[in-house]
Amino acid sequence: MGAHLSRTVAEGLAFMQIVDGKPVDSLSGQRIDVASPSDGKVFASIPASGEADVDRAVKAARRAFEEGPWGRMPAVERGRCLTRLFQLVEKNGEELAALESRDTGKPIRQGKADVTATMRYYEFYGGAGDKIHGDTIPFLEGFTALTLREPHGVVAGIVPWNYPLQITARVVGAALAMGNTLVVKPAEDASLTALRVAELALEAGIPAGVLNVITGYGRDAGAELSAHPDVDYVTFTGSPLTGTAIQQAAAINNRGVTMELGGKSPQIVFADADIEAALPVLVNAIIQNGGQTCSAGSRILIEKPIYEKVAGALAERFSKLVAAPHDADRDLGSMINPKQKERVEGYVAAAREAGVPVLAEGSIDPAAPSGGYYVRPALFGAVDPDAAIAQEEVFGPVLTLFPFEGEAEAIHLANDTEYGLVAGVWTKDGARQHRVAKKVRAGQVFVNGYGAGGGIELPFGGFKRSGHGREKGFEALYDMSATKTIVFNHG
Ligand code: NAD
What is the pLDDT of residue 1? Predict the structure, then answer.
């Protein structure tokens, strides 16, 4: 158990935020109860930050950027700090996985998978920051022109509740590799592992003030952070509506943003596909993390000759799915909070009322505590492409099927939502693989596979309402830095 944590009889585990290298409460002393989604019972609390707390954290990040050792540290040394953080995440992996699962309700094996991905982020960015460099540019006679990649300065990272460990790592790895300092605000529903990582970062030798993690409600701490005049850049993952609010706040100061805003991602299954290989991937792409994944594969487009066969096989698999507490480690856990449970159940009820056929439903483990936020996985098909359930991000274990005829209709249906984050294409025809991958509007396209959230090396981000900017891989290092051009006149 970390030093930031003190047990109090009344509050359970009382977590502190990490600002300027120290565990601190909110300045007001107000706290937010943390319930486990698996049983709805409060087991911890986190500080509820407001304007003054945000200001304190931004000032710490500014001081660390301008005056601390971080600004003078060579890229290779910054990378070594991240590499040590990778090792510490590995060393504390069991604790982090257990904490993440308890805080979010995800099955423990998903918590462990999140730790593995988190390690990979710090490992990748630990080795990447000193591989990014500028150019020399042919210019006028008598001049030499070159570019440098410079950090933005103080970066604000606003993180959602679905993959707090991983998404914190995605932001922290890229931002720190490029020499920025950070204020991270995880979601009020799942802040615990980000706090623990901030503590491990200090142990890894990342200087005080470089990585500050503050907790609080989005409408308070999140809104204050994105509008703070001394924040140089904002990166956000979450819903499109909140993304708009954050962009408006950042626009007051004309600051740059990276926005990862979810999706309604299609997988296209052509008649020549290897169906046996596809089936488990199609199911996992929507069931992973209970469907609370921005890149969840929530729509499956199936070529007509194989529609009945694939729909039947998916229905068989769906009817066997079981939602259960995180420590039971079944197919899926609970939703994050009562609001999310209501949202998912609302979509399912509305689709049923509208007459969308339900092909199969999973179940909730009868032993699951009644206070937990469980929903039954649901499979719908054939769905009208204009239905709400076909167009809107449900963010739950709800899968929709659509028959199609021919490549042109498949591409039309795949692109026929406001989103464009990820897509899957299943076919053995090589020329078709290339054609379709190019025509689908998505930031990532997987051919004969699907990787919801996977691949730290792979640039990731959206078209259309799914957002803009790119995370992961080397691309994130460009988002997390700015080009400076220097021109020498040597006559
Ligand atoms: P959200 O987008 O409102 O919350 C994400 C983060 O933004 C949290 O840290 C929150 O505290 C913060 N935030 C909220 N309002 C803010 C504001 N005005 N200014 C600054 N920060 C703010 O997500 P939610 O309300 O928890 O979930 C709503 C829906 O969003 C979900 O049902 C789901 O569809 C979608 N969602 C998508 C993702 C994703 O990865 N794409 C993640 C979480 C939620």
Answer: 42
Rounded CA-CA distance 336/151 in Å is 35
Distances (CA, A) of 107 to 66, 76, 322: 42, 37, 11
Q: In the structure, what pLDDT confidence band is assigned to residue 2 with cuts at 50, 70 and 90? A: very low
Query: Is 294 tagged catalytic?
Result: yes
- The closest residue, in CA terms, to atom 28 on ligand 1 is 239
User: What pLDDT sits at residue 285?
Assistant: 97
Q: Are residues 435 and 370 in the same domain?
A: yes
Residues 320, 256 share a domain? no
Q: Which distant-in-sequence residues (6+ apart) come within 8 Å of 434 by Cβ?
A: none
Q: Residue 243 in 3-state DSSP?
A: helix
Tokens 């054939």 correspond to 382
The reply to whether 247 and 307 lie within a common domain is: no
Question: What's the pTM value of the predicted model, to 2 decimals?
Answer: 0.96
- Are 385 and 366 in the same domain? yes
Counted domains in the chain:
2
Structure tokens belonging to residue 6: 């003190």
Q: Which of 188, 195, 242 for a ligand 1 pocket mutation test, highest count of atoms within 8 Å of Cβ? A: 242
Distance 466 CA to ligand 1 centre (A): 13
Least confident of 115-129, 163-177, 189-203, 449-463: 449-463
CB 95 within 8 A of CB 112: no
Say which CATH number the domain at 285 has. 3.40.309.10
296 and 406: one domain? yes
What pLDDT band is residue 476 in, cutting at 50, 70 and 90?
A: very high
Q: Ligand 1 — pocket residues by CB below 6 A? A: 158-162, 185, 187-188, 218-219, 222-223, 226, 237-239, 242, 245-246, 261-262, 294, 340, 343, 393, 395
Q: Is 378 inside a domain boundary? A: yes
Whole-angstrom distance, CA of residue 355 vs CA of residue 93: 46
Residue 284 is part of which domain span? 266-455
pLDDT at 298 over 70: yes
pLDDT digits (tens, 9 = 90+) for 431-445: 999 999 999 999 999
Catalytic residue among 294, 303, 393, 471: 294
For 232, phi then psi, to 5°, come to: -90, -25
- 224 CA distance to ligand 1 middle (Å): 15
- Which of these is catalytic: 199, 260, 303, 471? 260
- Mean of the per-residue pLDDT values of the chain: 96
Do 296 and 329 lie in one domain? The reply is yes
Domain presence at residue 464: no
CATH number at residue 62: 3.40.605.10
